[in-house]
Amino acid sequence: MRQDSAPDALGFRAKLAALAPSTNTIVQPDYDDLRPVGVTNHYSRIRVSNLSVTDDETFKALTTAISGSVDQALDDVLTADPDHIVMGMSAVAFYGGLAGANAFAERLSKRAGGLGVSTGSLSCAAALKAMGVKSLAFLSPYFPSANIEVRRFFEESGFEVFGDHCLQCPSPRAIAQVQPTSLVPIIHSLNNPDVEAIVQVGTNLSMLRLSAAAELFLNKPVLAINAATYWHALRAVGVPDKVAGFGQVLERH
To answer: Is the entire prediction scored with pTM above 0.85?
Structure first.
């Protein structure tokens, strides 16, 4: 619960606390592009070095380092007295299947004094269900062991998963250097008649605008994780605004 009763001059509808790894350069501009009038975003950085990532073991070391810095970043941004927490980091939020995803969100909410929390995993599942999707394929900047965790989460959440692709980006900052045009053939490779939606995970991977374009040429939902998480946060704080140009979940739901 917010401590201050008077609304902010700018965030008079809602103040969102957004947490992202310090190496992440995509979440902040993405969330700012999605921000309606009267909603403000307040960023806190989860400190992490730009570690070299070459395999499953080093990717796990990266996510462990991120996990170890989350609490401090959360404590820092709580001083702004936000209404809701928006997690701009995703891999850890998928670990442990549906139970692990719920436990992660619940732990953060408890630390934040009961504030609601939008995580990438739970937000994607909620967005897919809002769009009536029952089957999917997904792409990520991760390594294979993390994709296994993502697949497990979606399957335990009730979705059929027909394919996945991991980019195996060599460092956290390298994820943001992936150009959206290079993702187009991957999207096509994941698409087939059994797949009702394509999902992109990994918050430092830029696919917000490509997702909307891909929906036009695939004629099915293409969900970018940053769109899903911000959509979830807006609806959680009672902001119903539709936002055009970033995919149908924000335009229609």
So the answer is: yes
